[in-house]
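Today's session is about reading a structure prediction critically. Students often jump straight to the picture, but the first step is always the sequence itself: look for stretches that repeat, for charged clusters, for runs of hydrophobic residues. Only then move on to the predicted structure, which in these notes is written as discrete structure tokens rather than atom positions. Here is the chain we will use throughout the hour.
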Amino acid sequence: MEQSLSYIDQLVAHGLLMETGVDGVYARSAVFEDVIARFDALITAYGSDGGAEVVRFPPQMSREEFERSGYMKGFPQLAGTVHCFMGDEHDHHDMLDLIESKGDWAKHQKQTEIVLTPAACYPIYPIAAKRGAVPPEGLLFDVMSYCFRHEPSRDPTRMQSFRMREYVRIGTPEQVLEFRASWLEKGQNLMRKLGVPMKLDIANDPFFGRTGKMLANNQREQELKFELLIPVVREDRPTACLSFNYHQDHLGGLWKLKQEDGETAHTACVAFGMERVALSLFRHHGFNVQAWPKSVREILWS
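Below is the predicted structure for this chain, in token form.
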């Protein structure tokens, strides 16, 4: 019977996720959260040698900085904004009437100064820029945030609300490329020890429209993005659970991140999809964590 259920239905049946009535938005059980917490600690252990500054963000960021990022140029289909009621008493009554009649009450909502964070690293760049010139040794941040992307789906690996943890390197091209090369090796080693099948591949972001296709091709040709792919829902369409990204001086230019010699700083990051990694572990080791392979349990629960 279980084999006939979709993966999301299996997760719900085992009490690991709970449905909220909206595809891609799920409550997490204590067991699911414990796996994420254990994996989070493992990431920290692997990244402890870098001396990264730890920063944890709320799931919203400044609309001004979001607009500066250019996210709406490349990914308008994924973005989420925050709107609130700002009317008077008459507007309030009208809105309640529309809610009661199932009408379009959203017309009484106005855009606020915050948006839903699309990627954990975005809020760190303006913070770094306000500190002045990037020091000769560069900067390294350990960031994490709940992120939002509007792609409702019954595929649990495409949640609308999910956690992303990243290490972000800012500095010279040599510094950031060395950082990415190091994490390409460490990331594969980390997941290999967790006993899941995987492969590393060149990738591109889901840019929107005709221009987006050219951006995606350019990203692949220059090998700016690699993804660590793990089969989760389908064997023939593995899921990107880790990504390794080199932004060149693009983000440095947007936020005016300058080095002491006046050159624009380059940036790179390694990103961990926390829920996706947990989902891959349940897929390959089973829904009962007590029955997971001893080697995996020793790594996560040691």
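Discussion point for the tutorial: The two ends are 35 Å apart (CA to CA).
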